[in-house]
């Protein structure tokens, strides 16, 4: 092969790539690392199926439509047309909008090309970047900055996956799934948040892992939630590192069964820039882990160092600043378990309250662990390693590690409630039509008996009428269209209306 | 969409002869009759909610609901609710302060009770009241029955006594029979517990869950226009944070929150839930009210300080604690902050709140009540009513 030929081949290859780049008619194909073959290593592996869970909830190949968004277009335009099961690929470029997803099963995925990401830029005036209320939502690979509210906020979506996002200097919370069940928050890098970088609120079965959170008021907060694992995160230079809270005054009242393990919780000494009145505004800078009122919190295997106030603070509501009271929530952190952790150089510039507590126990030194207020049935192992106050009378724990628990994620995603098709018709009939139609009497609309005589077994005809009613009777008002019910529901309600007998 | 006035005319037939009323054997719309009792049926029941608390996002289940009353009990409650016989001198019914056309509130900053006395607080809407675990602004009652004893016997409200109330009902030509119909198998059906039970039964039938917002939430995204959607997104954003307290689907999370609203000029500070729970940290705390049918219920807040919905919304962006009287120590809720909402955003929220209107299950106002008194006693067409009708397109 002559040199000229090689040159030509190179040119063709270059043209191919240029073409892809300029015209980009085929979507970038991403190798999905969350499923597929795993590295089996030298030794015989065990439990790999379970560990896969920790990285992804939705592992089945996606069969829906792929919508592509490029700079200059609106992501929302694609969300509006997307159907459950679809993927929205956002190519590198700058986007400035609030993306709200009130649908189930949408994957919003940034495409990363040579380190370039799709940037959602709130420009300091938009509220939230991504706001979802559907189930089975995936938000990944984005770069989000300069929003005033939250970067990614979930309101009651189950089975969520929020991963691989970079969030910089964005409002109140970085990632805030709320009122959801079964979700993961992994591999995100978040900084500059005036409350919690990652805030799991009122949720169940959560896995927060492999995130880097820094220069925020709180690093990771688990609040009024149950069955959560926070592991392998790098939590540094926040005001407070990792928080497990019961916040009083919320409709879900408990936090329990939280494992905080194998995190790096290092040098969380950032000045507190929390909003006045916010719960985190009361956190003393230099707090590694803060457990407030939460029960059954296990702290294990973390490296907790260089936090100037204390490595771990455990408090009840009565000793915490900025908290209200709630007769329905128990203010005491019970059954806290502190297992082995590497604690080093904490408490070297601690607060007066901690010093005063130490005086009561005739202790000196820099506190690693401070407990204040009531805490029942809590335990600790190897307490001799640490400078502590308030834990002398804690029991020795009956267990030493959490290794048997891989994750609290559910084996299968939360399924939507099973709805019998006949129920759909009945519920729509009783909940909507019955407001204007009764079986025999004249109400706002004509009696159902009359309608049955008109339509007999023509349910489809009835379903068509209610989608777009025309005026039929002079002595009745017009019937409002019921087109907000989907076609299946309209047919179901038509069938039900034709079947009622009283 | 306003159909309820027709109801009023159409149903004037039900009560022809005073003494031969037959209570309804049908459950009100949105209820299903099972073994003689009415149970709520609604599309939100297709969904779950975390820890069954009935708070969440768009497709979230409702909280536990108080149902299981018989059709007759509900119907009896309706007559009682509209009958001024329940007051000391026949001058006030429950409906005088909870008027159907005014969102079951009364259009006043503070209600007017017996002999023109102005009471301390505003009458709340009763729509969806059957979902509430705590009643009154300060959450001092836990059941509808317990609640009803308040207005019946408060000197500045209906000013009755248990003795006179029972004597009046027993002496009436129709009520003994109506109570017997509603409480069959009971030796003495006409008792105070049954009076308040029937009132509770009727109030639970006030269901408003089919607004245009609900149609959006349940999947029909065309139900809201662009401005309403913009407003919804501000409403649930973490800047405005309205949805953190006025949480869907009921638009209340049913918690106590101290937000520091001002009293009307010259009125002393109302300490609210501090009194109920004997807790200084709850000074000025009130139960988060629902925002459903909110355009119908001006003026706003516990003592009606704000005449317009826009003023009520704007309150939240005027600064944390800005209206707390000097020298008063109030622990303002953490979600009350400095959202710096723009004028446009405030307008958008107000527009969105208009999409929470649904009166499709308006109960029928009885044409006559057993006492022969007017069921419209104390009703007044107010400015608010006209405004409300105007905003409801």
TrEMBL record, chain A:
GO terms for molecular function: electron transfer activity; heme binding; metal ion binding. SMART domains: PbH1. Pfam families: Beta_helix. Residues 420-501 form the Cytochrome c domain. Keywords: Heme, Iron, Metal-binding, Repeat. Transmembrane segments: none annotated. It comes from the Bacteria. SUPFAM superfamilies: Cytochrome c (SSF46626), Pectin lyase-like (SSF51126). Gene3D superfamilies: Cytochrome c-like domain, Single-stranded right-handed beta-helix, Pectin lyase-like. InterPro entries: Beta_helix, Cyt_c-like_dom, Cyt_c-like_dom_sf, PbH1, Pectin_lyas_fold, Pectin_lyase_fold/virulence, SCF-Subunits/Alg-Epimerases, SO_2930-like_dom. This is Cytochrome c domain-containing protein. The lineage of its organism: Bacteria, Pseudomonadati, Pseudomonadota, Gammaproteobacteria, Alteromonadales.
């Amino acid at each position: 092969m002559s040199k000229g030929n090689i040159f030509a081949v190179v040119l063709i290859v270059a043209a191919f790539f240029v073409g892809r780049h300029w015209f980009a008619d085929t979507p970038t194909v991403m190798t999905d690392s969350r499923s597929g073959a795993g590295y089996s290593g030298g030794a015989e592996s065990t439990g790999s199926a379970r560990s896969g869970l920790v990285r992804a909830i939705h592992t089945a190949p996606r069969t829906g439509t792929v919508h592509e968004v490029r700079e200059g277009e609106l992501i929302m335009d694609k969300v509006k047309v997307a159907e459950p099961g679809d993927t929205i690929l956002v190519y590198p470029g700058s986007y400035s909008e609030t993306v709200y997803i009130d649908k189930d099963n949408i994957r919003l995925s940034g495409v990363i090309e040579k380190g370039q990401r799709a940037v959602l830029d709130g420009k300091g005036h938009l509220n939230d970047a991504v706001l979802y209320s559907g189930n089975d939502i995936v938000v990944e690979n984005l770069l989000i900055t300069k929003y005033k509210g939250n970067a990614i906020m979930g309101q009651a979506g189950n089975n969520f996956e929020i991963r691989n996002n970079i969030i910089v200097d964005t409002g109140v919370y970085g990632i805030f799934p709320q009122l959801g069940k079964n979700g993961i928050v992994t591999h995100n890098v978040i900084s500059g948040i005036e409350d919690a970088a990652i805030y799991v609120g009122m949720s169940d079965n959560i896995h927060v892992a492999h995130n880097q959170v820094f220069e925020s008021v709180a690093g990771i907060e688990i609040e009024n939630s149950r069955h959560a694992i926070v592991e392998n995160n790098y939590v540094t230079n926040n005001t407070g590192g990792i928080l497990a809270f019961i916040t009083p005054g919320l409709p879900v009242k408990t936090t329990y069964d939280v494992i905080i393990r194998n995190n790096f919780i290092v040098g969380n000494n950032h000045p507190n820039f929390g909003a006045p009145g916010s719960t985190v505004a009361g956190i003393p800078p230099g707090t590694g882990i803060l457990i407030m009122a939460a029960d059954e919190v296990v702290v294990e295997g973390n490296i907790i160092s260089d936090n100037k106030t204390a490595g771990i603070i455990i408090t009840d509501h009565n000793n915490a600043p900025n908290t209200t009271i709630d007769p329905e929530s128990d203010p005491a952190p019970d059954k806290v378990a502190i297992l082995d952790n590497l604690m080093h150089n904490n408490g070297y510039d601690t607060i007066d309250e901690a010093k005063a507590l130490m005086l009561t126990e005739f202790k000196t030194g820099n506190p690693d662990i401070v407990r204040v207020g009531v805490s029942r049935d809590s335990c600790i192992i190897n307490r001799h390693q640490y400078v502590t106050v308030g834990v002398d009378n804690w029991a020795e724990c009956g267990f030493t590690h959490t290794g048997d628990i891989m994750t609290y994620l559910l084996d299968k995603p939360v399924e939507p409630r099973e709805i019998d098709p006949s129920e759909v018709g009945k519920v729509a009939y009783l909940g909507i039509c019955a407001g204007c139609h009764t079986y025999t009497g004249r109400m706002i609309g004509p009696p159902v008996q009359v309608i049955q005589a008109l339509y007999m077994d023509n349910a489809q005809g009835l379903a068509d009428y209610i989608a777009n009613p025309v005026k039929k009777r002079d002595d009745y008002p017009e019937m409002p269209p019921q087109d907000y019910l989907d076609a299946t529901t309209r047919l179901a309600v038509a069938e039900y209306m034709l079947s009622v007998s009283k | 969409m306003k159909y309820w006035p027709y109801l009023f005319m159409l149903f004037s037939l039900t009560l022809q002869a005073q003494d031969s009323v037959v209570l309804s054997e049908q459950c009100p719309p949105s209820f299903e009759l099972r073994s003689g009792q009415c149970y709520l049926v609604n599309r939100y029941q297709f969904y779950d909610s975390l820890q069954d608390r009935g708070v969440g996002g768009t497709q979230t289940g409702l909280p536990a609901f108080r149902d299981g009353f018989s059709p007759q009990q509900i119907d009896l409650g309706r007559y009682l609710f509209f009958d001024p016989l329940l007051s000391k001198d026949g001058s006030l019914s429950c409906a005088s302060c909870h008027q159907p056309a005014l969102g079951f509130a009364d259009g006043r900053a503070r209600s007017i009770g017996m002999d023109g006395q102005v009471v301390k607080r505003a009458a709340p809407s009763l729509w969806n009241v059957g979902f509430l675990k705590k009643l009154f602004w300060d959450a001092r009652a836990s059941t509808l029955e317990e609640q009803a004893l308040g207005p019946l016997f408060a000197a500045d409200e209906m000013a009755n006594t248990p003795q006179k109330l029972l004597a009046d009902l027993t002496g009436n030509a129709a009520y003994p029979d109506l109570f017997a119909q509603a409480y069959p198998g009971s030796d003495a059906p006409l008792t105070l517990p049954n009076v308040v039970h029937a009132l509770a039964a009727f109030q639970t039938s006030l269901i408003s869950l089919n607004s245009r917002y609900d149609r959006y939430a349940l999947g029909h995204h065309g139900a809201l226009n662009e401005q309403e959607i913009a407003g919804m997104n501000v409403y649930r954003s973490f800047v405005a944070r309205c949805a953190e307290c006025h949480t869907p689907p009921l638009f209340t999370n049913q918690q106590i929150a101290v937000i520091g609203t001002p009293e009307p000029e010259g009125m002393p500070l109302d300490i609210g839930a501090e009194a109920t729970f004997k807790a200084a940290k709850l000074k000025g705390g009130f139960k988060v009210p629902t925002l459903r049918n909110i355009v119908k219920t001006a003026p706003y807040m516990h003592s009606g300080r704000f005449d317009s919905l826009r003023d009520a919304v704007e309150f939240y962006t005027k600064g944390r604690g800005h209206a707390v009287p000097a020298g008063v120590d109030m622990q303002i809720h953490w979600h009350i902050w400095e959202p710096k909402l723009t004028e446009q955003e405030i307008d958008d929220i107000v527009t969105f709140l208009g999409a929470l209107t649904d009166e499709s299950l308006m109960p029928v106002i009885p044409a006559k009540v057993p006492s022969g008194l007017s069921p419209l006693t104390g009703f007044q067409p107010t400015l608010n009513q006209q405004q409300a009708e105007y905003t409801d397109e």
